[in-house]
Amino acid sequence: MQGSVDSAETLNYGTAVDSHSGHAEGHEAHPDHRIFGLIVFLGAESMIFLGLFMAYLTFRAVYPSWPPEGTPERELLVPGINTLILISSSFVIHKADVAIKKNDVAGLRTWFGLTAAMGAIFLLGQVYEYSNLEFGLKTNLYASSFYVLTGFHGLHVFLGLCLILGVLWRARKREHYSEAHHFGVEAAELYWHFVDVVWIILFLLLYLL
Amino acid sequence: MTIQAEAPKSAQPQLPHAGERKWQDYFTFNTDHKVIGIQYLVTSFAFFSIGGVMADVLRTELRTPASDFISPELYNQVLTLHGTIMIFLWIVPAGAGFANYLIPLMIGARDMAFPKMNAMAFWMVPPAGILLVLSILVEAPQSGWTSYPPLSLMTGKVGEGIWILTLLILGTSSILGGINFFTTIIKMRVPSMKLTSMPLFCWAMLSTSALILIGTPVLAGALLLLGFDLIAGTNFFNPTGGGDPVVYQHMFWFYSHPAVYIMILPLFGAISEIIPVHSRKPIFGYLAIAYSSLAISFLGLIVWAHHMFTSGTPAWLRMFFMITTMVIAVPTGIKVFSWLATMWGGKIALNSAMLFAMGFVGEFVIGGISGVMVASVPFDIHVHDTYFIVAHMHYVLFGGSVFGIYAAIYHWYPKMTGRMMNEPLGIAHFTLTLVGTNLTFMPMHALGMQGMNRRVAMYDPQFQSLNEICTAGAYVLAVSTLPFFVNAIWSWSKGVPAGDNPWNALTLEWQTTSPPAIENFETLPVLTGGPYDYGVEDFPDDMLPPLTSPELQPDSSAFS
């Protein structure tokens, strides 16, 4: 898809570039820059997380001990399993991308369905973890940071899950996504990888460091 | 940069939306970048008026040392709203307005890369702005536009909550706009336009959108944590609960220092367009100006802690930020010298656009020099939180940004409306603005040096005489907007028809009709020269830009 769009864009602006069904009704089609725009957007999003991570590291640096004295022990089993699930789901969602590039819509549905299930398990795992923790939002600075950072990330997982479910809904029609036109698939996949990478850093910062 | 209609007509598809623009379109979710540009500009001028009334309320209160016009609490509220409105609802959206209107026209595109997202970004501004302004009816925020904790956590939850929500909405709008500008400039130039042959305004917007995309999200992160502190009672920034207020300052200034460049860079770009056109000379140092925008954008990201020299910043860190801050004067100086060299020996047309552009250069340099002064740690510790800072930032933001916005309006108004603005009214506007600006803000330097604190309604009686001058200046500034608004509204329907290219300018936006047709260009232009090839000797006759209706050229035009 990327290739076809790029070549079209250098050739002409004035003639129809994108023959995507539904865009053709006499409307002059514009070149498709959605993936580029999404990457720029994810760059901006990563700055929110970077800002929050830097704030967390500063809090950590100015405290004499971290987590502060008296913070209850953290359980590593559930978040550990959760991390493995989320990392594996990034590979699973990539299989969907490979499938649609071979025009295999059934494969797309299978792999996206699996990713959605893994994402849902991750969120449930996080809810389970929240309900079993021995500290609350206001216990101390570590606890507040823990809830706000994992919660903000969880919100992103939830949004990614919605994107994946949206793609699945659209993929119920065989002809909606094809080898040449599957921006939705690519966008959901990119977003999911982003959420995954953020989680890896978050896990290192909050649980291991 | 003239155009040739190379492609045969038959190869072009029919313009799909051909037809007249209706006035109702400006009140709808329209995706045309020109409509959105004008929506941004009109909205920002409305908020400029509201913020301006607030400024005069503040100056009226400050005419006397006692608190006799409004209560100190109300003073704090008006002060906070004035700062927030002028930054986030006036200068930033005005820059976005010009960017929306001009970028696609300048690079030969039919619209922005993401038109729907563009309209969405605009329609976040009015609700957020109205929410903020109306907060004065219930309980406005009182902790200044910086909203430092713990003060901001102690001055009323409702007002502060509204402030945070407003800024989150405006920040999101700004980020969506930034994605659009960045993608449009990188991806949608006409095939013959290289990055180094695009107009300097586009270079400035490229640098601005990079700053928006890197800085604004960090502010969102800070506001998120501040919101939790305010509403949920966490203690990220509250020292009584073990939090660290200085972390907020770092996150806030990581955005808000670049925000200064988000507010000035678009106008640097506009001035780089205006000066060569009205001096009839090629821009001096095209590449130097283009790359200095990038340099300002990069350096702007690593100077933020110079706002925090008195916040217990360690000495080695102060040294680093002092040096980077002073280094910013180099790319800025490159621009100023390039503008002066462009004017040098040119055939200068002293019309309103050029007067404001020259005023911009002069006034901005005053703000720039006081900026280098406060970059120095010892001097900054002396004048921190005094009126010297108020003077410095108003010279940059009023003498710089606002003069730049006025210049850009006078320059591009004929393109936007198809009609010229009235010159005598424009010159009256310029004179009043120039006098008012210096009368209001120049005495503040002295007040600050003598130790008058900013942000306080009452002051020591020894400062009264200078404050009276400032207040008189503020009234002159209020009056100065009248000829402008009369001119802008009257000329829209009654002004002299401008023709396509009243200034005989070479950039692409002047090569289409005024106002431009709905998809901008009938046939997409092909570049045959540089954007600033004015008076270049080997410029063949057949490549001169079309002189539409020469009898309608304004007296100020160099070609009349």
From TrEMBL, chain A:
<dbReference type="InterPro" id="IPR024791">
    <property type="entry name" value="Cyt_c/ubiquinol_Oxase_su3"/>
</dbReference>
<dbReference type="InterPro" id="IPR000298">
    <property type="entry name" value="Cyt_c_oxidase-like_su3"/>
</dbReference>
<keyword id="KW-0472">Membrane</keyword>
<feature type="transmembrane region" description="Helical">
    <location>
        <begin position="145"/>
        <end position="169"/>
    </location>
</feature>
<dbReference type="Pfam" id="PF00510">
    <property type="entry name" value="COX3"/>
</dbReference>
<feature type="domain" description="Heme-copper oxidase subunit III family profile">
    <location>
        <begin position="36"/>
        <end position="209"/>
    </location>
</feature>
<keyword id="KW-0812">Transmembrane</keyword>
<comment type="similarity">
    <text>Belongs to the cytochrome c oxidase subunit 3 family.</text>
</comment>
<dbReference type="InterPro" id="IPR035973">
    <property type="entry name" value="Cyt_c_oxidase_su3-like_sf"/>
</dbReference>
<feature type="transmembrane region" description="Helical">
    <location>
        <begin position="76"/>
        <end position="94"/>
    </location>
</feature>
<protein>
    <recommendedName>
        <fullName>Oxidase aa(3) subunit 3</fullName>
    </recommendedName>
</protein>
<dbReference type="GO" id="GO:0004129">
    <property type="term" value="F:cytochrome-c oxidase activity"/>
</dbReference>
<dbReference type="GO" id="GO:0005886">
    <property type="term" value="C:plasma membrane"/>
</dbReference>
<feature type="transmembrane region" description="Helical">
    <location>
        <begin position="106"/>
        <end position="125"/>
    </location>
</feature>
<keyword id="KW-1133">Transmembrane helix</keyword>
<dbReference type="GO" id="GO:0019646">
    <property type="term" value="P:aerobic electron transport chain"/>
</dbReference>
<keyword id="KW-1003">Cell membrane</keyword>
<dbReference type="InterPro" id="IPR013833">
    <property type="entry name" value="Cyt_c_oxidase_su3_a-hlx"/>
</dbReference>
<feature type="transmembrane region" description="Helical">
    <location>
        <begin position="35"/>
        <end position="56"/>
    </location>
</feature>
<feature type="transmembrane region" description="Helical">
    <location>
        <begin position="190"/>
        <end position="208"/>
    </location>
</feature>
TrEMBL record, chain B:
<keyword id="KW-0349">Heme</keyword>
<feature type="transmembrane region" description="Helical">
    <location>
        <begin position="161"/>
        <end position="182"/>
    </location>
</feature>
<keyword id="KW-0249">Electron transport</keyword>
<feature type="transmembrane region" description="Helical">
    <location>
        <begin position="395"/>
        <end position="413"/>
    </location>
</feature>
<feature type="transmembrane region" description="Helical">
    <location>
        <begin position="120"/>
        <end position="141"/>
    </location>
</feature>
<feature type="transmembrane region" description="Helical">
    <location>
        <begin position="38"/>
        <end position="58"/>
    </location>
</feature>
<keyword id="KW-1133">Transmembrane helix</keyword>
<dbReference type="InterPro" id="IPR023616">
    <property type="entry name" value="Cyt_c_oxase-like_su1_dom"/>
</dbReference>
<dbReference type="InterPro" id="IPR036927">
    <property type="entry name" value="Cyt_c_oxase-like_su1_sf"/>
</dbReference>
<keyword id="KW-0186">Copper</keyword>
<keyword id="KW-0679">Respiratory chain</keyword>
<protein>
    <recommendedName>
        <fullName>Cytochrome c oxidase subunit 1</fullName>
        <ecNumber>7.1.1.9</ecNumber>
    </recommendedName>
</protein>
<comment type="similarity">
    <text>Belongs to the heme-copper respiratory oxidase family.</text>
</comment>
<dbReference type="GO" id="GO:0046872">
    <property type="term" value="F:metal ion binding"/>
</dbReference>
<keyword id="KW-0472">Membrane</keyword>
<feature type="transmembrane region" description="Helical">
    <location>
        <begin position="425"/>
        <end position="446"/>
    </location>
</feature>
<dbReference type="InterPro" id="IPR023615">
    <property type="entry name" value="Cyt_c_Oxase_su1_BS"/>
</dbReference>
<feature type="transmembrane region" description="Helical">
    <location>
        <begin position="283"/>
        <end position="304"/>
    </location>
</feature>
<dbReference type="GO" id="GO:0020037">
    <property type="term" value="F:heme binding"/>
</dbReference>
<feature type="transmembrane region" description="Helical">
    <location>
        <begin position="78"/>
        <end position="99"/>
    </location>
</feature>
<comment type="function">
    <text>Cytochrome c oxidase is the component of the respiratory chain that catalyzes the reduction of oxygen to water. Subunits 1-3 form the functional core of the enzyme complex. CO I is the catalytic subunit of the enzyme. Electrons originating in cytochrome c are transferred via the copper A center of subunit 2 and heme A of subunit 1 to the bimetallic center formed by heme A3 and copper B.</text>
</comment>
<keyword id="KW-1003">Cell membrane</keyword>
